[in-house]
Model the fold of this input.
Amino acid sequence: MSKIRQQRTAEQIRIILSELILRQISDPRLQGLTITDVTIDRELQYADIYVNALGDDTREDEIMAALQG
Done:
């Protein structure tokens, strides 16, 4: 898989997830959440999604629970 295609796919995933969180998820725990980066493997089967949330570090457990559930 070409590195350029990998990067383009990761960027498209980042854009789609950002729009979903902004427009379609109404969970108040995810307010102020942004997708900062997406990395995907060479086969385009697995992705690591990196997020950042406004506020302090005490929200980490709350945000991760909202994302998983």
Remarks:
- The chain has two helices and two strands.
